[in-house]
Every structure is written in structure tokens, then in C-alpha cells.
Amino acid sequence: MAETKRASEKVSETLIHAESRLRDSAFVMSGHHCHSCYELFYAEMGDCRFLIDDRIYDLHAGDFILVPPMALHYTRYLFGPCRRTVVLFRREDIAEVFLSMPQQEHFWAETRVFRVPEDRQTEITGLLSRLIAEDALQDSSTPLMRRLLLQTVFLFCARCCSFVSNLPVDIQTTDSQILAAASYIGRYYMNPLTTAEVAAAVGFSPNYLSRKFRRAAGIGLHEYLVFVRLQHAARELLSSQDSITVIALRCGFSDSNYFKDSFKKKYGVTPRQYRQMA
Q1: 2-171 and 176-277 share one CATH topology?
Q2: Strand, coil or helix: what is 161?
Q3: pLDDT reported for residue 190
Q4: Architecture, CATH, for domain 2-171
Q5: Region for residue 53 given its phi and psi (left: phi exceeds 0; alpha: psi -120 to 50; beta: otherwise)
Q6: Are 115 and 161 in contact (CB under 8 A)?
Q7: Are strands 73-76 and 55-59 parallel, antiparallel or unpaired?
Q8: What share of the chain has pLDDT > 70, as a percent?
Q9: What are the CA-CA distances from residue 143 to residues 14, 20, 146 (Å)?
Q10: pLDDT average, residue stretch 15-34
Q11: For the chain, which residues make up each domain, given as ranges?
């Protein structure tokens, strides 16, 4: 989590931040996180599991996933070593190519998965490597070079990548019950859900589902439910003038103090401060 906060602080200073790291199954994130900016995640080598909102994606070498601002997400590296590149950026950083992607403005509103053809993956790796290298240079040309390189990445993807929607067969997780549990939480998070109720909906015992969900998603079932509720509450704080207590109740929190404590733990500010900052 500290690493994510440092990256978020860095993107605030430099507008665009890119990094590449090799991960393996020993690496475990401390929990879901989100950014106020976009995240472009690229699997350069190996496979990983990406959980965002109420969906789980298994990404393979050559897969991009675009994460919209404030979307809670989490990555697991269950399948061996995986080299991934992450780019954090804002809409204004790619203004010139914003409408070049499929569906134009609609493209940026939700999670997107797109795949680089195998014979073009060397090119995209080279572009991303040059983007990362700008961190070490830090001269007067760096801000413009970052923007141009990132825009080139998106233009390359618009021209060469295959874009997928929902969960296509070749990247769908085999944990269909976990997907069903996450989807059930996504539909009924506003209700007083229990682990037993979710387990009954997908045909498992509560204890077995809890263990299976944590293995697959890297997060406990109840913790995931809280994060989903917090995500919806964060969106309502920006889109609604309703009181914080009303929003908390509408998003499934029966205790407004628990909601405020959970919100501050996740976002680093109180719900009121979050609304004022926006």
C-alpha cells in the first residue's frame, strides 16, 4: 500500500509515472487500492489475476487492462513470475489522442482489456521501456517526452490491438463460483449481506467460500464487500448532495461511524474531506 501511495504522490508531481517490476507468487498486496488518475497495466511476461469491482480477469503476456479513476482493484501473481508495467496518468496527458480509441469517450468510462498481437509485443515493450527511462533522465524535455510516448502507446493500441469486452473465454477465470460471489455482492451490496447468504447464492458453505475467495482474489469476502460499498459511497459523495449518513445507509453501512472510519482507512481522508477536495 505504501508503494501505491508513493506512486500516486509521484504522478501528482510529474503527471505521468511509469514503472516495471517482476512479481512472483511470494508477493502479496496488502489490499485493494485505487487512484484518482487512470492506471494502464500491462502484462509483459507471465500471467496474473486482476480483480476489479465485481470481476476477475486472468491476464496473459501481451494483455493491457485500463483501470478508470477511483476503481478499487487488486492483483495476484498465482501462476509464477510475471513482469508487469504500470502507467499512471490523467486525461489531460493524452488529450490529443483521447478520442482515437474504440467507442471514443465511452472507452474511458469503464475497465477495458485489450491484447497486443504476439508479433507486435516487442514494439510495445520498447515504447513502455522508453517511457520508464524518462524517470531517470528528468531533464527539461521529460514532461513532453512522457506525453508523446504515452500517446504513441495508445495510438499503437488503437491501430493494432484486439479489444475485448466483459469476460471472453480466453481470459475468463476458472473460478466461476468466485465470479458469481463477486457478482452477487456487486448487485446486492446495499443489503445487509452475510457470508452465509452469499455462500448460499453460489452453492458453497460459508467457511469453504471464505477460504476459496481469499485464495482466488487475495482478499477476504467480508473485506471485499466493504470495499465495494466504499467504492459506491465514494462515487455518490461526488454525484449526490445527500448527507454522508444517508449515503452510508444507502451503500449498505448500518453504522455511520464505522463507515467514516473505513472510508478514512481506505482513502486517507474523511468522507467530508473527500467531497470537499473534489
Answers
A1: no
A2: coil
A3: 93
A4: Sandwich (2.60)
A5: left
A6: yes
A7: unpaired
A8: 88
A9: 7, 19, 5
A10: 85
A11: 2-171, 176-277
Taking alpha carbons only, the member of 218, 68, 45, 191 closest to residue 122 is 45
C-alpha distances in angstroms, 105 versus 102, 145, 180? Answer: 9, 24, 30
∠ CA 8-154-149, rounded to 5°: 70
Helices (H), the chain: 2-14, 121-137, 142-160, 176-188, 195-202, 206-217, 221-239, 244-250, 256-267, 271-277
Q: Tell me which residue has cell 463507515.
A: 259
For 176-277, CATH gives: 1.10.10.60
The residue among 165 and 128 whose pLDDT is bigger is 128
Residue 78's pLDDT is 80
- Three-state DSSP at 39 gives strand
Mean pLDDT of 135-159: 92
Distance CA 249, CA 37 (A): 27
